[in-house]
Write a structure and sequence with these properties.
The structure holds 2 protein chains of 2 kinds. Chain A contains 11 helices and 9 strands. By secondary structure, chain A is an alpha/beta fold. Chain A is globular, with a radius of gyration of 19 Å. In chain B, the strands form 4 sheets. In chain B, strands 1, 2, 3, 4, 5, 16, 17 and 18 form an 8-stranded mixed sheet that branches. In chain B, strands 9-10-13-14-15 form a 5-stranded parallel sheet, sandwiched between helices. Chain B has a 3-stranded parallel sheet with strand order 6-7-8, sandwiched between helices. The chains are: A alpha/beta, B alpha/beta. Chain A: Reversibly catalyzes the transfer of the carbamoyl group from carbamoyl phosphate (CP) to the N(epsilon) atom of ornithine (ORN) to produce L-citrulline.
Chain lengths: 329, 430
């Protein structure tokens, strides 16, 4: 079966798969606001978007005449481009707002900017901000839909959705899979959103990392917690690596990149503990030789570029679901 | 000369003598002339009487932790607006924190506060002065001159001095002038970028946590320095069980040690933050329910001596930010008593024991004559209807800022009348 031929009925997700569209949320602020039915619906919608994106003529007109503003308080070329392409493929008018964070106090900028943008009557604002909870705060100040494109160390819901879609297309399901999320869990919004989503879909979640990169209470968020990479990867179906920020590996938290890679970097030796058909994922951008060996990043088990493709599809699905009130278009 | 006033038909509660009985209070010239337990005296002809209708009459509250915006941030709160809030909350005296702009670290500024307060305030405002110049934790202020100007205590407000040698010197020098030190403890390195209690909630919200040890480690240091120097040391606001344990141990060997607690850490927990509600961003942070219960126990068993409002007005601009970027603090003067009465209604603490932490205990720490129903004491009194139901609404509060942690809270018990030096400064309208 090719991925493109799947319908929603093919995905055993541990819940009743909806046959009708009824997504009725106004915002996508975090995975914590979604139930398994809604998650499944977004993934199913995204499957259809993959097909559209693979056609020579990629235009769909479901959001024609609608205005999407990408408001990125933190730089992120890839996520912003992904949202921009997603909106444009649906026919929306997409505007990228450059935000100066240095000149004004951050908080004032956020509220002021929200009020200003709101007055321009957009249909959706896609927001990334360095502070946890900032996107939710902004959503309270505007009349339109808001999509969280990453807030602080809180959530990055579209990343978790695109990861889930990538896993589902490769493994055919989410429930019952063992997924090991590895590295700097404490500082990762990607890890939080993924733990919430995979937990909701009945995957067996593991976190793996040095103790000082595992946040308090993590044992309540993941099914299993490991500080040893080999144990943590044992019989895993999916190995999800996280980006390590360089400044944390210079003596502040981790003594050196060399030490980190030795114990927690993904190389052939450690990956051998996972299942033979385990896939390797990374939200990007990668630090080759820090958290992942180049041979693995570019090797046959890596689905990292597929994740990027799924990113556009998931974001199309999210934008359309929010702006059309879940009605099939 | 003022007319005498007899407050009769009252349930008199005097924490200084641990009494809670029917009686009457006779006020003359702004002072308590006599306290009559049991039947009221025959009032001489022409004496004014006030029928308390069985309500509680107690000493006015003494709040050891109040910030205003005067001088420097008068739009947040002035001494006058804070005094209105205080009178409505039954607070007849408060200790003003020095964290104003400029910082109260100079005799002339203490003098300014004393004069502004006497010109504009309905209640008694006692200035504190900074321990360190500019609250920078580096150089001592002029303790002797500040005391002479009227400072009642030394404190760096919400700032915590990090240097052990600086603290040792400050404690020793404060002992020299027999002045109390009120210190808020927080290890700045362990706090780091922390903005709420460390734990699963902080992790889930993606907010940096503040561990208990950021409080207990500097507290343990302070308590040993207190032993070493003999200073009157007050741990201004503790928030967790381990801190209470440290204070309890210290008290067994050192009777100069005391501890304070914010009404917020007594009544609220970290769950109140919900989804990034910045009004609940406080310092010390709201802890878990277990820790809150430990604070209730510590208040009941006397480990914690003083309950305070931690009144800290913040403008909406500072609060309407992402949680980590929002300012700390909440107003509390008007809700202070009513919120604390929840514990009395739940029978977790007796009324007289609770009021001791808000009257006689702070009076002793600050060396005030108020805070007791005793002959010759200032007639700073409050009438409390313990069962008066009300709902807190920002718009009704007298503070200039609205950052209350008790918005929409249903409370039972309210101050009906407040007297300062025998004058009525607040009366609840019917």
């Amino acid at each position: 079966m090719t991925p493109n031929s799947r319908t929603s009925q093919d995905h055993a997700s541990g819940t009743n798969v909806p046959t009708q569209h009824h997504f009725s949320q106004k915002h996508l602020l975090g995975i914590s606001h979604l139930n398994p039915v809604e998650i499944t619906e977004l993934l199913d919608r995204a499957e259809a978007m993959v097909d559209i994106s693979r056609q020579p003529k990629k235009a769909k007109h479901s959001l024609k005449g609608r205005t999407q503003i990408n408001l990125f308080f933190e730089n992120s070329t890839r996520t912003q481009s992904s949202f921009e392409i997603a909106g444009k493929r649906l026919g929306a008018d997409v505007l990228n707002m450059a935000v100066q964070t240095s000149s004004v106090k951050k908080g004032e900028t956020l509220i002021d900017t929200a009020a200003t943008l709101n007055a321009m009557q957009p249909d959706v604002i896609v927001v990334r901000h360095a502070a946890s909870g900032a996107v939710e705060l902004l959503s309270q100040k505007v009349a339109c839909s808001v999509v969280n494109a990453g807030d602080g160390t809180h959530e990055h819901p579209t990343q978790a959705l695109l990861d889930a879609l990538t896993i589902r297309r490769n493994k055919g399901r989410l429930n019952g899979l063992t997924v090991a999320i590895c590295g700097d869990i404490a500082n990762s919004r990607v890890a939080r959103s993924n733990l919430l989503l995979l937990g909701a879909m009945n995957a067996r979640t593991r976190v793996v990392g040095p103790k000082n990169m595992l946040p308090r209470g993590v044992e309540q968020m993941a099914a299993e917690v490991f500080t040893d990479m080999e144990e943590g990867l044992k019989d895993a179906d999916v190995v999800m690596m996280l980006r390590l920020q360089h400044e944390r590996a210079s003596g502040k938290m981790i003594p050196s990149v060399r030490e980190f890679f030795h114990f927690y970097g993904l190389d052939e030796r450690k990956l051998a503990f996972a299942k033979d058909d385990a896939i390797v994922m990374h939200p990007g951008p990668m630090n080759r030789g820090v958290e992942i060996a180049p041979s693995i990043a570019d090797g046959p088990r890596s689905v990292i570029t597929e994740q990027v493709e799924m990113g556009v599809a998931v974001r199309m699905a999210v934008l359309e679901a929010l702006l059309t009130n879940g009605e099939a278009v | 000369m003022k007319n005498d006033l007899i407050i009769k038909n009252a349930r008199l509660v005097d924490p200084a003598t641990d009494k809670d009985q029917q009686g009457a209070v006779w006020i003359k010239n702004g002072k308590i002339k006599d306290v009559h337990w049991g039947n009221a005296p025959e009032a001489p002809e022409g004496t004014q009487t006030y029928d308390a209708e069985g309500h509680v009459i107690a000493p006015g509250l003494i709040d050891t932790r109040v910030s205003t915006g005067e001088p420097g941030h008068e739009y947040r709160e002035t001494l006058e607006s804070a005094s209105n809030a205080a009178a409505a909350g039954g607070v007849t005296s408060f200790l003003l924190m020095p964290d104003t702009t400029p910082v109260i670290d100079d005799g002339a500024l203490v003098d300014y506060v004393v004069r502004r307060a006497s010109a504009t305030s309905k209640v008694k405002i006692w200035p504190s002065a900074a321990i360190s110049k500019g609250l920078e934790g580096k150089d001592l202020t002029e303790f002797g001159l500040l005391k002479a100007a009227g400072a009642r205590a030394f404190t760096d407000g919400n700032s915590s001095i990090q240097s052990t040698s600086m603290l040792k010197n400050a404690f020793t020098y404060a002992k020299n002038f027999d002045m109390p030190i009120l210190h808020h403890v927080g290890d700045s390195e362990l706090i780091g970028d922390g903005v709420m209690n460390a734990g699963i909630l902080a992790t889930g919200l993606g907010l940096k946590g503040i561990p208990h040890e950021a409080e207990t480690i500097p507290l343990a240091r302070d308590l040993q320095l207190a032993d070493m120097t003999g200073v009157r040391y007050h741990a201004a606001q503790i928030s967790c069980a381990k801190s209470a344990e440290l204070v309890q141990q210290a008290k067994q060997r050192n009777d100069q040690v005391s501890a304070g607690l914010s009404i917020n850490n007594l009544c609220l927990n970290e769950n109140d933050i919900g989804s990034y509600r910045s009004y609940f961003k406080l310092n010390p942070p709201l802890r878990s329910e277990d820790e809150r219960m430990a604070m209730v126990e510590a208040l009941r068993d006397g480990t914690i001596d003083i309950l305070h409002s931690a009144h800290d007005p913040q403008d909406t601009e500072g609060k309407r930010r992402p949680f980590a970027e929002a300012t700390d603090g909440a107003i509390g003067l008007e809700t202070f008593l009513a919120a604390s009465l929840r514990l009395v209604h739940e029978e977790q603490i007796s009324l007289v024991r609770l009021l001791a932490t808000m009257t006689i205990n702070p009076a002793k720490l600050l060396g005030l004559e108020a805070g007791r129903l005793a002959k010759g004491a200032p007639a700073d009194l409050i009438e409390i209807d313990l069962n008066y139901p009300w709902v807190v609404a920002e718009k009704d509060l007298k503070s200039k800022s609205q950052n209350t942690t008790f918005e929409h809270a249903r409370l039972f018990g309210k101050v009906m009348t407040t007297w300062v030096n025998g004058d009525t400064v607040f009366r609840q309208s019917a």
